[in-house]
Amino acid sequence: MSNIYYGEEKIGTLNKKIGTLNKKRSFKSKVKSFFKKVVFWSIVILALALTIQYFRWAYPTEKVVEVVKEVIVNQNINYPVLDRIAECESNNSHYDKNGQVMLRGNTNKTVDVGVFQINSVWFAKATELGLDLTKEADNREFAKYLYTTRGTEDWVYSKKCWAK
To answer: Which one, 23, 84, 148, 158, has least CB within 10 Å?
Structure first.
């Protein structure tokens, strides 16, 4: 087979040069592809962040908490069972004989607080509702919340007293 020439160079040499150029284009296309991916995922992340911000703006938890708290506070419903529970739990007193908020430690390392002896496991929920269980009025309001959402199950240990 005879050698084919293009100008002064052999075709084989020319093919090697073209191969090198293709490798350079390949690197450029890889870089271009990488940046396309970066731009794409940046747009996706930005869209996700904007969606999250929209839902935080459209459905703020503070409004929900305020509404729930207002519903609880505005329920001037008399719960006779809660009066009996308060009597059994704390002799209907938010404070002990020294004038301090009534606290009672439990064997499971929790604490019961106030007139309704509400357990410390409820502190986070009470705080979420804007209530401070060490304040008597808030302790009473949270007791109403517990009663309307869970019934009397949180006072089951004093049931013998208040269920009479």
So the answer is: 23
